[in-house]
Amino acid sequence: MLVTTTHKVEGYPVTQYLGIVTGETIAGINALKDLGAGFRNVFGGRSAGYEEELVNARNSAYQEMVARAQQIGAEGIVGFSYSFQTMGQGNMLMVAATGTAVRFSPLS
Known about the structure:
- It comes from Gleimia coleocanis DSM 15436.
- This is UPF0145 protein HMPREF0044_0188.
- Belongs to the UPF0145 family.
- By secondary structure, this protein is of the alpha+beta class.
- It has one domain (2-104): Translation Initiation Factor IF3 (2-Layer Sandwich), CATH 3.30.110.
- The chain is built from two helices and four strands; from the N terminus they run E-E-H-H-E-E.
- The chain has helices spanning 31-43, 48-71; strands spanning 2-3, 14-28, 76-87, 92-104.
- It is elongated, with a radius of gyration of 18 Å.
């Protein structure tokens, strides 16, 4: 499935807009990763634990969005974007992937 942040794909005109599709993931950060991140706040450096959780949540939201688009017969998703938000006491991360499911017609 073709997924793009642009609203059109050169050489593949959109023939049908099927609607907005989304994928959402809420990921919790465990206490050990939170403790490690706290040390990095004091001493500096990157938090590999948080980065790994972010990558996993982002991939999960993306895959869910693509699966929903496939369920309605889409050939692609245009206008794709992510949004991120912390929830709860700041120890949960929500990632949403959003785009418009479409069908294409290749130019002859």
